[in-house]
Specification:
By secondary structure, the chain is an alpha+beta fold. It has two domains: 105 residues, Aminotransferase class 4, branched-chain amino acid transferase, N-terminal domain (D-amino Acid Aminotransferase, Chain A, domain 1); 156 residues, D-amino Acid Aminotransferase, subunit A, domain 2 (D-amino Acid Aminotransferase, Chain A, domain 2), CATH 3.20.10.10. Helices cover 29% and strands 29% of the residues. The protein contains eight helices and 14 strands. Strands 6, 7, 8, 9, 10, 11, 12, 13 and 14 form a nine-stranded mixed β-sheet that branches. It has a five-stranded antiparallel β-sheet with strand order 2-1-5-4-3. A hairpin with a 2-residue loop joins strand 9 and strand 10. The radius of gyration is 19 Å and the shape is globular. The chain starts with 8 loop residues before the first strand and ends with a helix. The mean pLDDT is 96. Its EC number is 4.1.3.38. It is an enzyme of class 4 (lyase). InterPro entries: Aminodeoxychorismate_lyase_IV (IPR017824), Aminotrans_IV (IPR001544), Aminotransferase-like (IPR036038), BCAT-like_C (IPR043132), BCAT-like_N (IPR043131), Class-IV_PLP-Dep_Aminotrnsfr (IPR050571). Pathway: Cofactor biosynthesis; tetrahydrofolate biosynthesis; 4-aminobenzoate from chorismate: step 2/2. GO terms for molecular function: 4-amino-4-deoxychorismate lyase activity; pyridoxal phosphate binding.
Length: 276
């Protein structure tokens, strides 16, 4: 059995560390990715990750064999035990130019990494958000999917280097809150949950979708619609979430402060149930 240390990489199912320089993922960001948490030899929310990958592949017209990927990822998870698997699906090699190669031979890349060492205080005591100046471009064709072009998030994350901020709030071109740099946003507003719509920009996170379903099941339905800055600031509770760290309560944004309320703790418990 091959030892799965951080940095171990499979390319098209074979251990490898070399990539053809003509790969369109490198040249154009022509592909998709998923970051999958591994816990006790299994991948929480694997079905949801692969469903999002499949939606993105349909949008980009890239062939995607989710059955093969499920088998490959599940086997790697058993060997790894705990950590992170990053799955990258590219269109494969191509010649110079944007025209799609014929035939297309998509390439799958899986990389092993350690689980990030997030401070426990982020989940227990909450986090402050940095108000990012970088704005998300609005492109409905790419909205929601996790494509490889993540330069907006790179620029947003480059705006701060202060450990007082664990995440950054990112808005659209009109200044409306959309998401955080690596997570989705939920706010408790007028007695109910809201999460920003992602039909123009942003990434539709699998933890976001999971929590929408689970909160609805416990009588806390989530409204999905555009959210204004005023609504965010008038909220009684705020949290951010993703499929790696679960739920972090948000306690600050600029001069605005929030308390960690019982509804956030409920969402946090629902996330932990599936991640452990």
């Amino acid at each position: 059995m091959v030892e799965l240390s951080p940095g171990f990489t499979l390319i098209d199912g074979q251990p490898c560390t070399e990539l053809n320089v003509r790969d369109r993922g490198l040249a154009y960001g022509d592909g998709l990715f998923e970051t999958l948490r591994v816990a006790q030899g299994r991948i929480p929310l694997l079905e949801q990750h692969l469903a999002r990958l499949s939606r993105g592949a349909d949008r980009l017209h890239i062939a995607c064999d989710t059955r093969l990927l499920a088998q490959e990822l599940s086997q790697l998870a058993l060997q790894l035990g705990g950590g992170i698997l990053k799955l990258i699906l590219t269109r494969g090699d191509g010649q110079r130019g944007y025209a799609l190669p014929k035939p297309q031979r998509p390439r799958r890349i899986v990389q092993v990494a350690a689980l990030p060492a997030y401070p426990p205080a982020h989940a227990e005591q909450g986090v402050c958000l940095y108000p990012c100046a970088t704005r998300l471009g609005q492109q409905p064709l790419l909205a929601g999917i996790k494509h490889l072009n993540r330069l907006e998030q790179v620029l947003a994350r480059a705006e701060w280097d202060d450990p007082a901020y664990a995440e950054g709030l990112v808005c659209d071109q009109q200044g409306a809150p959309v998401e955080c740099t690596v997570s989705n946003l939920f706010l408790r507003y007028q007695g109910g949950w809201l999460t920003p719509a992602l039909d123009q920009c942003g990434v539709q996170g699998v933890m976001r979708d999971y929590l929408c379903t689970q909160l609805d099941a416990v009588g806390q339905p989530v409204g999905v619609r555009p959210v204004t800055q005023a609504e965010l600031l008038a909220s009684s509770e705020v949290f951010c979430c993703n499929s790696v760290f679960g739920v972090w309560p948000v306690i600050g944004l600029g001069s605005q402060q929030w308390s960690i309320g019982p509804h956030t703790r409920q969402a946090q418990a629902l996330a932990q149930q599936v991640l452990l």
